[in-house]
Amino acid sequence: MIAFTLMTLVVSGLFSSGIFFSVHFVEKHLMSEEMDRKMDAILSDDSLAHSSSRLDVKTRFYSDAGAGLPSAPWMMTLTAGFHELERGGEAYYAYVRDEGGHRYLLLQEQQEFEAREQALFQVVAVGFLLSVVAACLLGWLLARKVMAPLVKLAWQVRQEDRLLSHSPPLALHYADDEIGHLAAAFDATLRRLHESLERERLFTGDVSHELRTPLMVIAGSCELLAARPLAEREREQVERIARSVKEMHGLVDTFLMLARNDPKDSAFAADATLGQVVEEQCARWAPQIRAKGLDFQVRYPHGGDGNASAYNQTLLGAVLGNLLRNACHYTENGGVILTVLTHGFKVEDSGSGIPEAEQVTVFQPFVRGSGARGEGMGLGLSLVKRICASQGWRISVTSLPAGGCCFQVSLSSS
Question: Boundaries of each HAMP domain copy (predicted)?
Answer without folding.
Answer: 176-198
